[in-house]
């Protein structure tokens, strides 16, 4: 299955991670790999956008697909395409794809200028399509609701416009996010969790960066700042307004399904903001009467990374392949089926049913994560806890890259 909505978000996050922490990635000789992974996605997204107002948002039929358990390399089943267009619009998915392409155009600006221009052209067309033909993609194509249901498109419009502003410097986009649409979509004052469905917190944190340019200072940006601060203050465990959505072991815990996406996304935002504070010489974060330093945010980010890598009550690393004790029954077809097995669609389920550990290790996969009581059930059909996703991987790449060194003066941000 190719699910376009979370895949585009994956690309946006990878781009953001590279823009912030490309220098760190280079130090550990991973920058080329990460750029290649990003290009793998953006090449696909370019192909998925064959004309201005058409975007293919899904390859495969999830109902049929879930009746099979087989290796992707040997699949022969039909994989039908689903698109959004002017009669069946998908503002959220088109805008997220625009964000992915605009952010990636920044990544490739020096390395591959022609490709960067191409991405930017697609991004602007897609944003225009998203904004002109408004509709939630999971209402236009209700069959996607069971998998990647979208709860609205206002956040993606703001997020995409923020990235387009960054990529083009065109003030129209800044006005779009602030005076034109802030009131309708920004949900100021209400902290939210950053994830594939909701980009508001990411947009707020990103906008703090633009405040360093005096021409960008306005009331709307102040409201973005206040909301971003509310998000960050909630994350700090010792603040006067800490979120209660946390396990006893200290992990941000928001939902039974794929909880780690929220923990890692929160940690990534806190880390990025702590680095913005250092580069912009903002000494303190004000939380309801208390003042915090960049180091407090960094410590929080580190606490989430440490938990995920094994400092937790289970003493388990949730990053597959890392440490000596990590999930052995990841919900992953390629990992669970031996490489020379000749099983097809339905008889492949014997590999899902098998009680043996996965024969292949999906190195680098970040699973869904623990229950609220800090425990984890390592069982192959436990997709709620044991299914890795591309967006989890992109987020953990961002978080770990940011933690590689504590030299926080961001140089790669263009
Ligand atoms: C527009 O998208 C809908 C939903 O995916 C699809 O059923 C329809 O065929 C598309 N329209 C055209 C002209 O392809
Ligand atoms: C999808 O989201 C919409 C909007 O939030 C909601 O009304 C609908 O019930 C959701 N569908 C499913 C299957 O959860
Ligand atoms: C799978 O099929 C290939 C080619 O048809 C054959 O060479 C191989 O031995 C088969 N493997 C198993 C485990 O049966
Ligand atoms: C796998 O287990 C399910 C549920 O127990 C069973 O219905 C199915 O037949 C099994 N499939 C195979 C191929 O072993
Ligand atoms: C932890 O929570 C899960 C899910 O609610 C539950 O199934 C499990 O029994 C709990 N484990 C312990 C040790 O309380
Ligand atoms: C795996 O879990 C799904 C969803 O909970 C369930 O429908 C299916 O029957 C389970 N399969 C097996 C083999 O246990």
From TrEMBL:
InterPro entries: 6-hairpin_glycosidase_sf, 6hp_glycosidase-like_sf, Glyco_hydro_9, Glyco_hydro_9_His_AS
Enzyme Commission number(s) from the entry: 3.2.1.4
GO MF term set: cellulase activity
Pfam families cross-referenced by the UniProt entry: Glyco_hydro_9 (PF00759)
Active site, UniProt feature: 331
Signal peptide range in chain numbering: 1-22
Catalytic class of the enzyme: hydrolase
Domain Glycoside hydrolase family: start-end pairs: 1-400
Keywords assigned: Carbohydrate metabolism, Cellulose degradation, Glycosidase, Hydrolase, Polysaccharide degradation, Signal
Reactions catalysed according to its record: Endohydrolysis of (1->4)-beta-D-glucosidic linkages in cellulose, lichenin and cereal beta-D-glucans
Gene Ontology biological process: cellulose catabolic process
SUPFAM superfamilies xref list: Six-hairpin glycosidases
Family as reported in the entry's similarity comment: Belongs to the glycosyl hydrolase 9 (cellulase E) family.
Annotated protein name in UniProt: Endoglucanase
Organism: Forsythia ovata
């Amino acid at each position: 299955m190719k699910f376009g909505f979370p895949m585009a978000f994956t690309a946006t996050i990878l781009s953001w991670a590279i823009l912030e922490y490309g220098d760190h990635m280079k130090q550990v000789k991973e920058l080329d790999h990460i750029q290649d992974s990003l290009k793998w996605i953006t090449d696909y997204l370019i192909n998925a956008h064959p004309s201005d107002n058409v975007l293919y948002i899904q390859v495969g039929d999830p109902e049929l697909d879930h009746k099979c358990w087989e290796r992707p390399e040997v699949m022969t089943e039909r994989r039908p395409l689903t698109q959004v267009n002017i009669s069946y619009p998908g503002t959220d998915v088109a805008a997220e794809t625009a964000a992915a392409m605009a952010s990636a155009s920044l990544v490739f600006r020096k390395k591959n200028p022609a490709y960067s221009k191409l991405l930017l052209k697609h991004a602007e067309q897609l944003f225009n399509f998203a904004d002109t033909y408004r509709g939630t993609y999971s209402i236009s194509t209700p069959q996607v609701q069971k998998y990647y249901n979208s709860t609205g498109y206002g956040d993606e419009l703001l997020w995409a416009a923020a990235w387009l502003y960054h990529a083009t410097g065109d003030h129209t986009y800044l006005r779009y996010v602030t005076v034109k649409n802030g009131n309708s979509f920004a949900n100021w004052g209400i902290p939210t969790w950053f994830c594939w469905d909701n980009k508001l917190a990411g947009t707020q944190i990103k906008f703090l960066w633009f405040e360093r340019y005096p021409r960008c200072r306005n009331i709307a940006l102040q409201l973005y700042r206040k909301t971003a601060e509310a998000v960050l203050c909630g994350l700090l465990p010792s603040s006067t307004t800490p979120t209660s959505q946390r396990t006893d072991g200290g992990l941000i815990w928001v939902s039974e399904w794929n909880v780690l996406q929220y923990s890692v996304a929160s940690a990534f935002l806190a880390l990025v903001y702590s680095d913005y504070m250092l580069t912009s010489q903002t000494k303190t974060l004000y939380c309801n009467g208390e003042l915090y330093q960049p180091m407090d945010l960094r410590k929080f980010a580190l606490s989430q990374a440490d938990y995920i890598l094994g400092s937790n009550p289970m003493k388990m690393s949730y990053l597959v392949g890392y440490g000596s004790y990590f999930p052995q029954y990841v919900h992953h077809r390629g990992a669970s089926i031996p490489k020379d097995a000749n099983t097809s669609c339905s008889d492949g389920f014997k590999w899902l049913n098998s009680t043996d550990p996965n024969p292949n290790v999906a190195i680098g996969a970040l699973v869904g994560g623990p229950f609220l009581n800090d425990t984890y059930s390592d069982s192959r059909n436990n997709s709620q806890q044991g299914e890795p996703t591309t967006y989890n991987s992109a987020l953990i790449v961002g978080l770990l890259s940011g933690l590689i060194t504590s030299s926080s003066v961001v140089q790669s941000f263009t």
